[in-house]
Amino acid sequence: MRACMVALSAFLLCAAAFGVQVQSTPVVHAAALGGINVEPSARPWRYVGANPDSWWCPVGACTTSDPLGRINTEMSLAHQLNVANVRLEIPWFLVEPSRGGYSWSRADYIFQSAAAYGVTIQPILVYTPAWDGGYNQFPVAADFQAFVTTFMGRYGSRIRAVEMWNEPDGGQSLVSNNPALYVQDILKPGYTAVKSVRPGVSVIEGGSINDSGTCCAWLSGVISAGGGSYFDIAAFHDYGGNYAQVVSAYRSLVGGKPIWLGEYGVSDATGSQQSSLISAAIAGTPGLAMAQFYTLRDESVYLCCPPTPYGEHKLYGVVAADDVTKKSSFYTMQKLLGGSSPPPPPRTPPPAVSPTPAHVSPSPSTSPSATPRSGQPSSSSPHAGGTPTASSLPSAIASAPGELRALVRSVVPRGGMRWLSYALFALGLVTFGWGGLRATNVATMMSARPRPPLLKPRSNLNIAILLGGGVLCAAAILLLVYELSSRI
């Protein structure tokens, strides 16, 4: 009886602390998480090669004299915004310009810079290499699966979600709007590869641009073609502002799967219109799990090489093209996402060695008739004309706290951290009660005269057991809080 009373007291003490901590973190997010897009790796319908204004620009043919410094600057800006992730194209044709011949130098630098600034990359795997048909052709399924397997083996521990192509129904990144071929050649082999290497990484079906108009031909086609089992997150792009309607329609098709708004925005010199869209997407769209704004920085469209302005200027950024001037929309997003400025210094600076990306050939696109929609940004990737010099960069940054969290989430199944926290709490509760029973005279004090001291003599070990139980309870609380507030 007395032992039961001690255990009950221990339970109440731990449960009280547990309840206070859990109450302080809402279980249900009232608003979407916020992400940001960076410039497309290429626009092959304009110029088959790396975008000179992007993170992938070829050394010596960039719109900045310090392409690696620009990556770091924009990682710092993303950190200040406190975005859940940075949506970034991984141009397959640049990374694997010849079958089995990989060039990871620029990708290595990007991922290490992201880790240094505490930023999570959400990659988009896109664009078929010339040796597999050309940038907008449906790839051979086995070839795409092999590429995804290799990519995940290299970066899988650093990401939480990966997207299979960009706007596959838009008519630019793929030659035709064909959900069945998309499932067969891209989605299914990509999903299989991801789950074989990193089961805990989520797969995003390629964000549709047309479903924001008359919903939901693309997603319905993917599901009808058997693709419903091969993605964890459904995504769409919307530059019209009807987010809630699309989310509602998507919900009826995907059930409880998360729904992401992969691109949204407007060309705006001051940021006032952008601020309205950001508030509507992040704070005013029920059922939306993630809203990734397009884009971080203003840009222009270029041909190459040397970089030649095409004459199309895009003011979609929350920061001006100088990477310094912040629009009002930057501060709106920062406030909604709980960001801060200036950011702390990087945990570990990215390497100073300048990686050399693929040398690109300034050959014209084979499909010049494909033109982007007026006023709407497009994401796409280039076709590399040569092989980059691969430089092996140090990977010690992988031990940074952000990478450790990503590793934990890749090992522990979805929702597993919550059950782990419950198990730790139960173990801590039992340990706490057992240690308390061994270390104190609580039971004897209830009837003994005179009353003995609270602690039993020579009870250091017992006190250590009691404290160990408390530590396990605290660890369980921290794990649960992280699980409830974590970003996918």
Strand content: 5-15%
Query: How many beta-strand segments?
Result: 10
The shape, in one word, is globular
Using only C-alpha atoms, the radius of gyration works out to 26 Å
| Helix fraction by DSSP (H/I, runs of at least 4) | 25-40%
Whole-number mean pLDDT: 81
Largest sheet, described in full?
8 strands, parallel
| Classification by helices and strands | alpha/beta
Number of helices: 14
| Unreliable stretches covering 5 or more consecutive residues | 16-30, 353-411
Order of helices and strands: HEHEHHEHEHEHEHEHEEEHHHHH
The N- and C-terminal alpha carbons lie at a distance of: 47 Å
Reading side by side through the largest sheet, how are the strands ordered?
A: 5-4-3-2-1-8-7-6
Question: How would you portray this structure in words?
Answer:
This protein has helices at residues 2-24, 67-81, 92-95, 105-116, 141-155, 179-197, 217-224, 243-254, 272-283, 328-337, 401-411, 416-439, 442-445, 460-485; strands spanning 33-37, 86-91, 121-126, 161-164, 202-205, 234-237, 259-264, 290-293, 299-303, 308-314. 40% of the residues lie in helices and 10% in strands. The protein is of the alpha/beta class and 488 residues long. The chain is built from 14 helices and 10 strands. The chain is globular, with a radius of gyration of 26 Å. It has an 8-stranded parallel β-sheet. A two-stranded antiparallel sheet has the order 9-10. Helix 5 (141-155) links the parallel strand 3 and strand 4.
